Amino acid sequence: MIEPSWANCLAFVSSEGFETDSLVAYLDRDDIRGKLLQSPLPSDRDALPLRRFLFDAATLSDGAYRDYVRALPRPTKAFPENLEPAKRRILIEEGKVLFEKDSVDALADDAELQVSFVASNIEAYLADPTKFALNDDFREDLLLRGIEDDDKRALIDLMDLNALADLPDRAGLVGAILDRTAADVSALGGSVARSLITHSRPLTTQISLFNKCHAALSDDDVRGILADLPRPYSEIKSGNYSARLANTEENLALVEWLDARNIISSWSKAGWLSDDIRVNLYRR
After folding, report:
1. Cα–Cα distances in angstroms (integers) from residue 280 to residues 110, 215, 223, 277, in the given order
2. How far is Cα of residue 21 from the mean position of the Cα atoms in its chain?
3. pLDDT tens readout for residues 78-108
4. CA angle, corner 19, sides to 15 and 23, nearest 5?
């Protein structure tokens, strides 16, 4: 058996008797791979044919391909042609393709991989997003990935928030991010604010956004949102009774501005028998 070494592999790749299938079968063996990877893959110009072979080796098993790709000393400019999605994903996960417009465009036929590639290079994308022909549908998919909230906030800044009034799923996704990142949402338009509040989850997020966005809402908007919320919030309307809310920081903030805007008559702590907030309504 040929001694497993990078030098011998390179010699075979460069020889007249070179056969792709033979080298792939050899490299796919666990014992051979284990011995080869004990030494760094040469990074000099002379070893380029071997590195190119490993990069393009579509018929290697996925496990072997990942191991050899990980050993490559530097990333390459473009994805190999005719490489199956599983191996292109390996190149993305191992960071072995440079993040450039051409490499992003090369994945246009596979939206899932394209989103994964951008998500893996989110800082580079956000540094110059105008280089890439990516729309808000694509950015919405990025928001669903495991990237940092600061990067999600930067993505939202690139999006057309006015469209959220007609996109409930996106509004719910964006609303939750804006709330937990303490974004300033006071200047949002009324229809956008209402969509964020209505479609975000959980309920605590809805109330938090309601408190932050209420200045953008008309009194009719406020009453409409209250009616759409679950009980006991939907009970805050005109009537000959008092609604009761749990005594939380968010609910205290809510009743304070509802009172200031004369949406409710008044509010108070329920008394020594209960810690609830009593919301006094205007009579019909």
Report:
1. 56, 22, 15, 10
2. 40
3. 999 889 999 999 999 999 999 999 999 999 9
4. 95
* pLDDT 10s digits, 216-249: 999 999 999 999 999 999 999 988 888 999 999 9
Q: Which two tokens stand for residue 53?
A: 């072979």
**Over the stretch 197-220, which tens digit does the pLDDT of each residue have?**
999 999 999 999 999 999 999 999
Say whether pLDDT at 1 is over 90.
no
| Helix 168-180 and helix 149-157, axial crossing angle in degrees, nearest 10 | 130
Exposed (0-12), middle (13-18) or buried (19+): which is 31, by Cβ within 10 Å? exposed
Q: 64-73: list long-range contacts, CB under 8 Å, 24+ apart.
A: 64/27, 64/28, 64/33, 65/90, 66/90, 66/94, 67/33, 67/37, 68/27, 68/33, 68/37, 68/41, 69/94, 69/96, 70/94, 71/37, 71/40, 71/41, 72/41, 72/96, 73/40, 73/41, 73/43
- Phi, psi dihedrals of residue 274, rounded to the nearest 5°: -155, 150
User: Of 204, 164, 209, which is closest to residue 184 (Cα–Cα)?
Assistant: 209
First to last CA, the chain: 94
Residue extents of the structural domains in the chain: 160-229, 238-284
- Please spell the DSSP secondary structure of 100-114, one letter per residue: -HHHHHTTTT-HHHH
**Residues ≥6 apart with Cβ < 8 Å to 10:** 42, 46, 47, 49, 50
Residue that the structure tokens 């792709």 belong to:
20
pTM for the complete prediction? 0.89
Considering just the CA atoms, what is the radius of gyration of the chain in Å? 29
Handedness of CA 231, 237, 241, 242 (dihedral sign): positive
Contact 60, 70 (CB under 8 A): no
